[in-house]
Amino acid sequence: MSHHIVEFQDVHYRYPDGTAALNGLSVRITHGESVGIVGANGSGKSTFLMHTNGFLLPQRGSITVGDMTLDKKTRQEIRKKVGLIFQNPDDQLFMPTVFDDVAFGPLNLGLSPKRVRECVDEALETVGGLGLSSKPPHHLSGGQKSAVAIAAVIAMQPDILVMDEPASHLDPKSRRALINLLGHFHHTKIIASHDLDLILDVCERCVIIRGGRVVADGPAEEMLSNRQLLEENNLELPLSLQKRDWSPGGDMNEITKLHHLLGHWAEHNAEHAKTYQDWAKKADSLGRTELSGLLMKIADETIAMDGLFRKAMEVCK
């Protein structure tokens, strides 16, 4: 499907203060790909993202989205295809209520009031925010704001979802919910983040940018396990990989992949145990002592699994 393709060809962009943010960047992203964009601060990641839907326009080179070349005349049409979610959700939420914010895009697409409500309800349900519909955005937590900002974009049913540091304001539980949500979005995804573990979880492909140019591009597992490549670009191995031995080239055999997965499972095992403990306390405060006791037992047995995870990881070595 050509309307899902994004292609940058020798794109240059310099900010008014003289900062050269993009210096001949070229990359092609095709239908259905999930692509992580990584690089050190100042590498050009955010500038690249803002070019995907015409928030910024190239000063040299060309950008094609689907069958259209991006310019002043086409960017409004391209924004219907490319949904851009900014790093700070406060930059996107400006209406009196959550419903109004999520409805803003569909209304501007000219949809009927009935269809707008359907789109809003579907989008909020997707991010687990249906109960927030009548709340003012400034009363929401950081995680709730991020969820609503995502809903405001997916309500427009874009072909391509573009996100800048989507997990930067999220606690661990909200971050995991975001990862699960992105796993269910089957169109093209372009995600820039310093959270390399998130990129490893969500993206099949990884593009490294340095000095406004693409310096490496390949499968995410290989790229993000290549310590030398990452260090050359002022990056570090994902936290989940830092305590493990990886070959310099980053090749991952099946047992190595399993070792990596066990590390993720162990990490989230601890998160789950804490969640059970929190709910046990809530149940106890409501006088539901039997339920509280069962939840604490589940938490204890979950924590007890940590030893099994560690033993399995040792055996994988």
Describe the structure.
- The protein has 317 residues and is an alpha/beta fold.
- 45% of the residues lie in helices and 19% in strands.
- It has 11 helices and 10 strands.
- It has helices at residues 45-52, 75-81, 98-108, 113-126, 142-154, 172-183, 196-202, 220-224, 227-232, 254-285, 289-316, and strands at residues 6-14, 20-29, 34-38, 60-65, 68-69, 82-85, 160-164, 188-192, 205-210, 213-219.
- The longest helix has 32 residues, at 254-285.
What is the topological layout?
Layout: E1 6-14, E2 20-29, E3 34-38, H1 45-52, E4 60-65, E5 68-69, H2 75-81, E6 82-85, H3 98-108, H4 113-126, H5 142-154, E7 160-164, H6 172-183, E8 188-192, H7 196-202, E9 205-210, E10 213-219, H8 220-224, H9 227-232, H10 254-285, H11 289-316
Parallel strand pairs: 3-8, 3-9, 6-7, 7-8
Antiparallel strand pairs: 1-2, 1-4, 4-5, 9-10
